[in-house]
UniProtKB/TrEMBL annotation:
This is Homocysteine S-methyltransferase. Its EC number is 2.1.1.10. The keyword RNA-binding does not apply. The keyword NAD does not apply. Transmembrane segments: none annotated. The gene is mmuM. PANTHER family: HOMOCYSTEINE S-METHYLTRANSFERASE-LIKE ISOFORM 1, ZGC:172121. Keywords: Metal-binding, Methyltransferase, Transferase, Zinc. It comes from Leucobacter coleopterorum. Residues 1-295 form the Hcy-binding domain.
C-alpha cells in the first residue's frame, strides 16, 4: 500500500452504514452497521462490492462499532467479538475478490472506531469520555491485536476526537507491525475536543508504522482547513474523507441539515498531498463515483 500511495491517489469507499441503509438494512440500533455484520454478513459483502463497482479501491471494514464493551451490553461474549472482528476483514477481502480485484489493485483497511463510538451517544464528536490515555490504550489494545492478526493492509484508526485518544492509539499500536493510519474528526481548525490539531499531528508522526494522517467524519470546509494545517505541520501522506455536510443527532439517531458536494475540493486536496480520498457518513456510491472520476482524471 505504501507503493500505491507513492504512485498516485487511492480512492477510498464512502459511508458503509449509508450504503447498508440504502440497500434496505436497519442501521438505527446502538450497534449501527456492526449488527448487520453480525446478522447478515452477506449484506456487508455486497455493500463493499457496490463501492468497488463505483470506483473505490479500498474497502473499509465493518468493524468501526465492533467493541467488547459495546457488544457486552447486548450479551455477546469476548470470543464472539474476536470472531466478528476477523469476519469484518474476511468479508471485505471476499468482496475484493468477487469484484475481480487483486491485493495489488485494491486494499482492505480495518476500521478502528474511537471509544465514543462504542457508547452510541455521539461522544466521539466531543472526546469528553472522562478516561485517561492509559485507560483508552487498554480499551483499544485487544481489538487492534485481533484486527492486525487477521492481516488487513492497514489499520485505519478513525474519527479520533482528542489528544488522549491519539496518545492511547500510538501506545496500543507500538507492538504491531501492521501499517497504521490516524484520522481525526475536527472543527474550526482543531480537534473536536478543542485541542491542538498540530499537537495531534506531532503525536501521530511518532506512531510506529504510520502510513498516513488526515481527517474524516467532519464537514467539508472543516476538513479543508484542517488538511492545510496538517500539511504545514507534517510531510506524511494525507487522508481525507469528510461527511456529506449533514449533522448527526445522537438523541434522535438521525441526520439533520443539507448535503454539500465534496467533489469540487478533490483537485485542491490532491495538490495538497492527499493520497487517500473518499467519503464518510452520508456519502454513497453516486457521489463516490464522482470523487473517483475526479481523483483519477489526468492532471496537467
Amino acid at each position: 500500500m505504501r507503493t500505491a500511495l507513492q504512485n498516485g491517489p487511492v480512492v477510498l469507499d464512502g459511508g458503509l452504514g449509508t450504503r447498508l441503509e440504502a440497500r434496505g438494512n436497519d442501521v438505527s440500533s446502538a450497534l449501527w452497521s456492526a449488527e448487520i455484520l453480525r446478522q447478515q454478513p452477506e449484506e456487508v459483502r455486497a455493500a463493499h462490492q457496490d463501492f468497488f463497482e463505483a470506483g473505490a479501491r479500498v474497502a473499509t471494514t465493518c468493524s468501526y462499532q465492533v467493541s467488547y464493551s459495546g457488544f457486552a451490553r447486548v450479551g455477546v461474549e469476548t470470543d464472539a467479538v474476536d470472531e466478528l472482528l476477523a469476519r469484518s476483514i474476511a468479508v471485505a477481502q471476499d468482496a475484493r475478490a468477487a469484484s475481480g480485484l487483486g491485493p495489488t489493485e485494491a486494499w482492505v483497511m480495518a476500521s478502528v472506531g474511537p471509544y465514543g463510538a462504542s457508547l452510541g451517544d455521539g461522544s466521539e464528536y466531543t472526546g469528553d469520555y472522562g478516561l485517561s490515555a492509559a485507560e483508552l490504550r487498554d480499551w483499544h489494545r485487544r481489538r487492534l491485536q485481533v484486527l492486525a492478526a487477521a492481516k488487513p493492509d492497514a489499520l485505519l484508526c478513525e474519527t479520533i476526537p482528542s489528544l488522549a485518544e491519539v496518545v492511547a492509539l500510538r501506545e496500543a499500536l507500538s507492538d504491531l507491525a501492521t501499517p497504521a493510519i490516524l484520522s481525526f474528526t475536527v472543527a474550526d481548525g482543531r480537534l473536536r475536543s478543542g485541542e491542538s490539531l498540530v499537537d495531534a499531528v506531532r503525536i501521530a508522526e511518532s506512531t510506529p508504522n504510520i502510513l498516513a494522517i488526515g481527517v474524516n467524519c467532519s464537514a467539508v470546509a472543516d476538513t479543508d482547513r484542517a488538511l492545510r494545517i496538517m500539511r504545514e505541520a507534517s510531510e506524511l501522506p494525507l487522508i481525507a474523507y469528510p461527511n456529506s455536510g449533514e449533522v448527526w443527532d445522537a438523541n434522535a439517531r438521525s441526520w439533520l441539515g443539507s448535503a454539500q458536494s465534496l467533489v469540487a475540493y478533490v483537485p485542491e486536496w490532491l495538490a495538497l498531498g492527499v493520497k487517500l480520498i473518499g467519503g464518510c457518513c452520508r456519502v454513497d456510491t453516486g457521489e463516490l463515483a464522482e470523487i473517483a472520476a475526479a481523483a483519477t482524471r489526468p492532471r496537467s
